[in-house]
TrEMBL record:
This is Peptidase S8/S53 domain-containing protein. One of its GO terms (biological process) is proteolysis. It holds the Pfam family Peptidase_S8. It comes from the Bacteria. It comes from Mangrovactinospora gilvigrisea. Keywords: Hydrolase, Protease, Serine protease, Signal. The active site is at D73, H106, S282. Residues 352-362, 418-430 have a biased composition (Pro residues). Residues 341-351, 363-389 have a biased composition (Low complexity). GO terms for molecular function: serine-type endopeptidase activity. Residues 1-26 form the signal peptide. Residues 341-389, 408-438 are annotated as: Disordered.
């Protein structure tokens, strides 16, 4: 099965358009009308999570200038007004060509959460990312959910790639100047398992001083399986929290979770220049990648281990009511506190960049990569296709009903689907879905 057929799962719900006229599938959502927001851009007014993270307070110190964040995803719409001028030339490991697809819905949304700079007079409209002066290096490693294989054909005569797209994309990003790598992808299906190629690629990034941020997974209301790449040693694995600071029902509860960030009602732009409300741990991971970009801009010599520790030491340990919640790792990220912790770390002796190897947990696990083509004999995992990632929603289509297309994978020893598809999956068990358009 080719990578083009490995559509990543998204739960597509009814999308409500805020700025345009309503349609049969989309009804308008009223813009905020309080005195404080009556004259403000309605999209900007909905970015509550920036205040929750404390990002505006951190911008007095840095906005991420000079930092490049690699977004390994579905491609990024470089012409989107909120990203224009901030997207570097990248690579497409799905088709094997330079210059990734520029219509990726999910990737565009994640890129904007990291480095969106807004648009209009004074950039006062649209989406701001946590690091609005950072640059995005787009690396396409998977398809948007619902993309038909015919839309992304394999490039004729493309050279064979012994690595799956995620492994290859990580190494390519490191070699092409990435300062941070964002992996808002994964697979928490029963057939997923750790991958030596991905593990090696992540260790390659860490050894070169590049932090890797990944979404923790969206199986919290289901089987709650271990997810990769989030569970690899050294990865900053991010859970999702609500506005109240409690773990979102869908967010995976596993031992490897590092920190958490908002993952509900998060505004993202799409290639159609509309805005959508996203929810899932992918969005949370992107917000943390923006935080890491700010840390790197201020302290470029900190190791990935020091940055991870700074996030953990500065996180808020529980939801708004003060109850501890070990399911969100060290707690919810605070950008100003993380920068302060990084200031302290910069005065300390560096920690090792690469964590010691650790045995993979037994049993099924999730979050691995899509494969660009059927693996040649001798490829890692014995030549079996890698499980495809879940994606956190970045506005795909206006649908009246949700459909969750869980990715399938086959094993050499036991052919057949590794994860059971779940049509009409309930909202409490998303695969990093779109919530609604705003």
């Amino acid at each position: 099965m080719t990578a083009a057929a490995r559509a990543a799962g998204l739960l597509l719900l009814v999308l409500a358009l805020l700025a345009d006229a309503p349609s049969a599938a989309a009804s308008p959502v009223p813009a905020p009308t309080t005195a404080a927001t009556a004259s403000a851009d309605p999209i900007r007014a909905r970015q509550w999570y920036l205040d929750t993270l404390g990002a505006p307070r951190a911008w007095t110190q840095t906005r991420g200038r000079g930092i490049t964040v690699a977004v390994l995803d579905t491609g990024v719409a470089a012409a989107n007004p909120d990203l224009a001028g901030s997207v570097l030339p990248g690579h497409d490991f799905v088709t094997g060509t330079a210059g990734p697809d520029n219509t990726g819905r999910h990737g565009t949304g994640m890129a904007a959460l990291i480095a969106g700079h807004g648009h209009g007079p004074g950039d006062a409209q649209g989406v701001l990312g946590v690091a609005p002066q950072a640059r995005i290096l787009p690396v396409r490693v998977i398809l948007d959910d619902g993309d038909h294989p015919a839309k992304t054909p394999k490039t004729p005569n493309a050279p064979a790639n012994p690595l799956d797209p995620v492994s290859a994309g990580i190494r390519w990003a490191v070699d092409h100047g990435a300062d941070v790598i964002n992996l808002s992808l994964g697979d928490d299906g029963p057939g997923a398992h750790p991958d030596s190629g991905e593990d090696a690629a992540i260790r390659y990034a860490l050894a070169h001083g590049v932090p890797v941020v990944s979404s923790a997974g969206n199986g919290g209301a289901d089987a709650d399986r271990t997810s990769y790449p989030a569970a690899y040693p050294g990865v900053i694995a991010v859970a999702a929290v609500t506005r109240a600071g409690a773990r979102a029902d869908f967010s995976t509860r596993r031992w490897y979770t590092t920190v958490a960030a908002p993952g509900l009602d998060v505004v993202v732009p799409a290639p159609d220049n509309r805005y959508y409300l996203a929810w899932g741990t992918s969005a949370a991971a992107a917000l943390v990648s923006g935080t890491v970009a700010l840390i790197r801009a201020r302290h470029p010599r900190l190791t990935p281990a020091q940055i991870r520790t700074a996030l953990e030491q500065s996180a808020r340990a529980g939801p708004a009511d003060g109850r501890p919640d070990g399911d969100i790792g060290a707690g919810t990220v605070s950008v100003p506190a993380a920068l302060a912790a990084a200031d302290r770390a910069a005065r300390q002796r560096p920690q090792p960049a690469v964590p010691a190897p650790s045995p993979a947990p037994a049993g099924p696990s999730g979050d691995a990569a899509a494969s660009a083509a059927p693996r040649a004999a001798g490829a890692h995992r014995g030549g079996t296709p890698a499980p495809a990632p879940y994606l956190a929603a970045a506005g795909a289509a206006l649908l009246a009903a949700g459909e969750w297309l869980r990715r399938r994978r086959r094993r050499t020893a036991a052919p057949g689907p590794g994860g059971e598809p779940e049509p009409e999956a309930p909202p409490d068990n998303p695969a990093d879905p779109v919530g609604s358009e705003v």
